Every structure is written in structure tokens, then in C-alpha cells.
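Milestone M4 deliverable, item 7.
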Amino acid sequence: MLVLDTDVVTLLQYPESALAQRLTARLVASGRSTAVAITTFEEQARGRLAECARAKTPEVYIRATARLSQLLREYQNRIILPFDDRAAAHFRVLKAAKIRIGTMDLWIASIVLAHDATLITMNLRDYEQVPGLKVEDWTTS
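Output delivered:
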């Protein structure tokens, strides 16, 4: 199973870009199932909700809520992996090991480890610090 990091999901939300098209083709060609961590949904939902909260005019609010609705539609068609007891156990080990990456990235790494999956990300620098995590950047080749 491949788990798409938040940066990759964001890239794929702009399917007209050449990079998104190449990545999509590679994902399809892999024949592997793809999923996202619940943390990715959380990160994106927070962003969309913040847009809605910042809206000061009806026109801006229309656009913000349209983007929020689009996000909901996109996630209805995705496999979303939970942060469960297995992920929590991995998280505790990583925290105890003092892995120096952001908490959201640790949540995602823990979920990926719990599912023995491969994380597809553009953030190799941080994720390569996580012992045992299979991580690849499919946007560079």
C-alpha cells in the first residue's frame, strides 16, 4: 500500500499541472492501492476551515466554502487510515527516540508504520529520519 503525504495530496489537487499528471500516471502504473492518513485530512480541513473563518465578504465566503465542499468530495473517494492503537504505539516509540520532525509528520509516519506501507512524499529530509519507515519521492524521477 502507498500512503500519500499531505504535500503529494495537495499536488494532486491541481491535476492540470504536468507534475501532477506524471505522478498520477506513476501511481496508476504501480498497481498498488493508495491511501492517506487521517492526519492529512486534518491538515487540509484546517486550512479550508481557516479560509472560511477569514472570509469577510459573501463573495470570499462563497469561494472558501466551495473549496471546503470540494475537499469533502475528494476525501469521500479516498481510503483514510486511522490513528489507532497500533499507530499510537509507533508514535510513542518515535517520541521516545527523540525523532526531530514535526508532530504532524510523526503522526503520519506512525500511521504508515502501523500499516507497513510506503509513504510517498516530497519531504524526504524529515521522513528519512524515521527508523523503519519506507519513504519515496516520486516527484523527482
